[in-house]
Design brief:
Layout: E1 3-7, H1 14-22, E2 41-46, E3 49-55, H2 66-80, E4 83-89, H3 96-108, E5 112-117, H4 126-129, E6 139-141, H5 150-160, E7 176-181, H6 188-196, E8 200-203, E9 215-220, E10 223-227, H7 231-234, H8 243-257, E11 260-266, H9 273-285, E12 288-294, H10 301-314, E13 323-325, H11 337-348, H12 354-367, E14 380-387, E15 392-397, H13 403-417, E16 425-430
Parallel strand pairs: 1-3, 1-4, 4-5, 5-6, 7-10, 7-11, 11-12, 12-13, 15-16
Antiparallel strand pairs: 2-3, 8-9, 9-10, 14-15
Helix pairs in contact: 2-3, 8-9
Bound molecules: guanosine-5'-diphosphate.
Residues 182, 184-190, 233, 294-295, 297-298, 327-329 line the site of guanosine-5'-diphosphate.
């Protein structure tokens, strides 16, 4: 859903206009400098199109002076929004703070719709003409209070917003894409055979390429799943030199084409360097991950003891991945694979609304503030989830955060929103 950010000085009627756009009267409160509201984003529709309205007035950027304060808000707005609604008070005209915003908006290249508010009747419309001087195109005269002109304004907003953003995976709603990965002989092809059984369809959509990937469509749990590059699993490619390189290239490409990686590890053997390299590849790819320990029939009491120690020590970076112990040979616990893939994909695609996220960040900071560094205490000013798949968060802060504090934020995000089976990307943008 495209995002519209509303920017403007306090008292220009921004909140009233946001209420008008979202069709509610009570939701948005007036700006109070120094107060961060816990809710800044709202769902809106106009002419059947949905979009999200972000009211930057709800964000206190901790800046000195009015012009600086709203300039900082405008910067946040252009970072996260697809289009900006810039609200000016037509009865006051252009102020220095407005000029500062215009500079930020111009530089960003984002589409801007200019609202000339407080034009309550036809006579007042002349006051909006002066706003042409801002160089942002046509000012739309509105009365947020009475609703006058808001239809035309919303039409202009829709025109400025992009059509629903393109999804990165071409087959949305199509089969989920799984890459079975792992070093040779861990049981990938045994697993695939057990999962696919008889009823599998081979889909070759990239023939002619040197690696000759072949996908298989498999019915599991009443749905169709696409297993990526099964040729790489079924064919025993063993050339004397470069075998591992070739295998790792193949693994990387399969992960790139997949949404979720199903990493198979031989539970009966020590976790190897090669296992760790493959895990690193998945982490770098930003894909969802499920870890499956195979050959559980060979895991005795003693091996189990060491396996758990290795798991805690070597796989600490991916403790968030759902884990299964199974035996491909007998099919034991094979039925746990689909629920684990589902959980990982759900976590990978989770979206947290900006309002919920900032309310959570407020609580997090209250529970455990950032330590003071050199007499200063960096503050989290505003956060937004810029993307899902994988969940990617941008945090605007007043200064650099300690690495330990960033890990704390990630851990709390996982606890709060249940990000199972997915890496989380945290981008901290200190304002300096
Ligand atoms: P891949 O190279 O990862 O595809 O591994 P394969 O599926 O070819 O399996 C390698 C070897 O491990 C074969 O001899 C399999 O029979 C054996 N294997 C696979 N799964 C199991 C299992 O659950 N238990 C035991 N004991 N052996 C297994």
């Amino acid at each position: 859903v495209p995002i519209l950010a509303v920017v403007g000085r306090p008292n220009v009627g921004k909140s009233t206009l946001v209420n008008r756009i979202i069709g509610r009267r009570e939701a948005v409160v007036e700006d109070v400098p120094g107060v961060t509201r816990d809710r800044v984003s709202y769902d809106a529709t106009w002419n059947g199109r949905a979009f999200t309205v972000v009211d930057t007035g709800g964000w206190d950027p901790d800046a000195q002076g009015m012009a600086e304060r709203i300039r900082a808000q405008a910067e946040v707005a252009v970072t996260l929004a697809d289009a900006v609604l810039f609200v000016v008070d037509a009865t006051v005209g252009i102020t220095d703070a407005d000029e500062a915003v215009v500079k930020v908006l111009r530089k960003s290249g984002r589409p801007v719709v200019l609202a000339a508010n407080k034009v309550d009747d036809q006579r007042a419309e002349a006051e909006a003409f002066g706003l042409w001087n801002l160089g942002l195109g046509e000012p739309y005269p509105v009365s947020a209070l009475h609703g006058r002109g808001s239809g035309d304004l919303l039409d202009a907003v829709l025109a400025a917003l992009p059509e629903t953003p393109e999804e990165s995976f071409e087959e949305i709603g199509g089969p989920r894409r799984v890459a079975i990965i792992g070093r040779p002989n861990v049981g990938k092809s045994s697993l695939l055979n057990k999962l696919a059984g008889e009823e599998r369809a081979v889909v070759d959509d990239a023939s002619g390429t040197t690696v000759d990937p072949v996908d298989e469509l498999v019915e599991l749990g009443g749905r169709t799943w696409r297993f990526i590059d099964t040729a790489g699993i079924r064919k025993r490619v063993k050339t004397a030199s470069g075998h591992e390189y070739y295998a790792s290239l193949r693994t990387t490409t399969a992960i790139e084409r997949a949404e979720v990686a199903l990493l198979v590890i031989d539970g009966s053997q020590s976790i190897s360097e090669q296992d760790l390299r493959i895990i690193q590849t998945v982490r770098d790819s930003g894909r969802a991950l499920v870890i499956a320990f195979n050959k559980w029939d060979l895991v005795d009491e003693e091996r189990r003891y060491y396996l758990e120690r290795e798991y805690e020590r070597e796989l600490v970076q991916v403790q968030w991945a759902p884990r299964i112990n199974f035996t491909a040979r007998t099919g034991w616990h094979i039925d746990r694979i689909v629920p684990a893939l589902d959980a990982a994909l759900a976590g990978w695609e989770t979206r947290v609304s900006t309002g919920t996220l900032n309310a959570f960040l407020g609580r997090l900071v209250a529970e455990h503030p950032h330590p003071v560094r050199g007499g200063k205490q960096p503050r989290i000013l505003f956060g937004t989830q810029a993307q899902s798949a994988p969940p990617t968060f941008i945090l605007f802060t007043s200064g650099k955060l300690d690495a330990g504090y960033e890990r704390y934020i990630e851990r709390r995000l996982r606890e709060e929103f249940g990000f199972v089976g997915t890496p989380i990307v945290l981008q901290v943008r200190p304002r300096e």
